[in-house]
Write a structure and sequence with these properties.
Layout (H helix, E strand, L loop, with lengths): L5 H5 L4 H14 L5 E2 L11 H12 L12 H15 L8 E4 L2 H12 L5 E5 L4 H9 L3 E5 L11 H7 L4 E7 L11 H11 L6 E5 L24 E6 L12 E4 L2 H14 L5 H12 L6 H18 L15 E2 L10 E2 L2 E2 L3 H11 L2 E2 L1 E2 L9 E4 L4 H15 L4
Parallel strand pairs: 1-12, 3-4, 3-5, 5-6, 6-7
Antiparallel strand pairs: 2-8, 7-8, 9-14, 10-11, 13-14
Helix pairs in contact: 3-10, 4-10, 5-9, 7-8, 11-13
């Protein structure tokens, strides 16, 4: 007898963690696996941020914080949004959460009634669709492809909006494609969305600083949609603080109050020591941490050159984040070494078992013809991973 709720039974497991767990199991059994599954910087937290955490412990920041976060942190976030994005948010419009994932959940929980639709431009981060399900909503997928640079058009967006559309949720820079929407592209999307004030824009900007070409534009910078936009960001990617679990949302006042109400009943305030350390991180000039971005760019260039040599892969040069998202449709529908490849999840498992390289299939990203590699790994690992994959696949070319 299944005693779990229908809500839980509707949810799938994160394919990212499925593949990373499988890679760990193989490693534990003695197999030399290179795992390029998780979207996690492989740097340590910068020393000044760690020192701020030590100071917070010594200053006894060990009690509950306000539900939306310490005022000093929300002020630092406000100043960051003004400095980096030219956005005016009061501290009362900001809710600090246990990671950007909770910030998104808060917004969806505050917005959605059962049956409300959320537009998801594909590819999307694996958790978006499951989050929408969890909150009783219905995802409407807007497909893109390698040919369209994995981005939707204004015309495509307008055709998808209905009376049931409650929100659009997307990341720019994008996990998993490694692309981003330019100023002009976002302007065209904003022009459409401004005509539909019942649609809330949830803009996930967690990879904002990891952009190799230009400064990332936030869709909230366009005045016509500022009041219908929720900006999501956090400390995990730019500051290598994944385990510290600090994210935030910046929203219109009415939505910020809804997020605070939701969080107050779920977790209350985020970790106090991590909050204090985040103040230091945000007050620093972003250039202090540019060494990480420079290292990612060097690895991107390396792995892009190597992956182009793998037969059957079509790949775009990622302009941001730290992922490659090759189209592997060449192999879908084929049988490789007795293994039927029905979609890219099957192909990712094939690579793990035959080449001992972990990646993530694109089905749960909304792009079943692609796979995702994280290049947040050492150059040595990246070289060896691409060599192994090339060696395994050359006999099928």
């Amino acid at each position: 007898m299944n005693k779990l709720s229908e809500r839980v039974n509707r949810l799938g497991y994160s394919q990212t963690f499925v593949m990373s767990n499988k890679a760990r199991e193989m490693k534990a059994s003695g197999i030399d696996v290179i795992s390029l599954t998780l979207g996690e910087p492989d740097f340590d937290v910068p020393d000044d941020i760690k020192q701020a955490a030590f100071d917070a412990i010594n200053e006894n920041y060990s009690h509950y914080s306000p539900v939306p976060g310490f005022l000093e942190l929300r002020e630092a976030i406000s100043a960051k949004l003004k400095r980096d994005n030219n956005l005016e948010y009061k501290p009362s419009q900001i809710c600090v959460s246990n990671g950007a994932k909770q910030a998104i959940i808060n917004v969806l929980a505050a917005l959605l009634n059962d049956g409300d639709e959320v537009l998801l431009p594909a590819p999307y981060w694996v958790s978006y669709d499951e989050m929408v399900k969890m909150m009783g909503g219905e995802s409407v997928i807007l497909p893109t492809s390698y040919v369209t640079d994995f981005k939707i058009t204004a015309e495509q967006l307008e055709e998808a909006i209905t009376e049931k559309t409650k929100a659009i949720l997307f990341s720019s820079p994008c996990n998993p494609s490694g692309g981003y929407y330019t100023y002009d592209e976002l302007k065209s999307l904003a022009k459409v969305l401004a005509k539909y004030p019942h649609v809330t824009i949830i803009s996930d900007e967690i990879y904002e600083y990891i952009n190799y070409e230009t400064k990332t534009t936030s869709i909230a910078q366009f005045p016509e949609v500022f009041e219908q936009t929720a900006v999501i960001n956090g400390m995990s990617k730019a500051f290598a603080m994944t385990g510290w679990r600090v994210g935030y949302s910046a929203c219109p006042e009415w939505l910020a109050k809804g997020c605070e109400k939701i969080q107050g009943q779920m977790t209350s305030g985020a970790n106090t020591v991590a909050q204090r350390a985040s103040i230091t991180a945000l007050k620093n000039d972003p250039s202090n941490y540019k060494y990480m971005i420079d290292a990612f760019k060097k690895r991107r260039d390396l792995v892009f050159d190597l992956i182009k040599e793998i037969p059957g892969f079509k790949v775009l040069l990622p302009k941001a984040a730290f992922y490659l998202f090759p189209d592997v449709s060449h192999y879908i529908g084929k049988t490789l070494d007795g293994v039927e490849i029905k979609n890219s999840d099957d192909f990712a498992m094939f690579l793990l078992e035959k080449a001992h390289v972990g990646c993530v299939g694109g089905v749960s990203f909304g792009s079943p013809e692609c796979i995702r590699f994280s290049y947040a790994a050492s150059e040595e690992e990246l070289r060896e991973a691409m060599r192994r994959i090339k060696e395994v696949l050359e006999k099928f070319s």
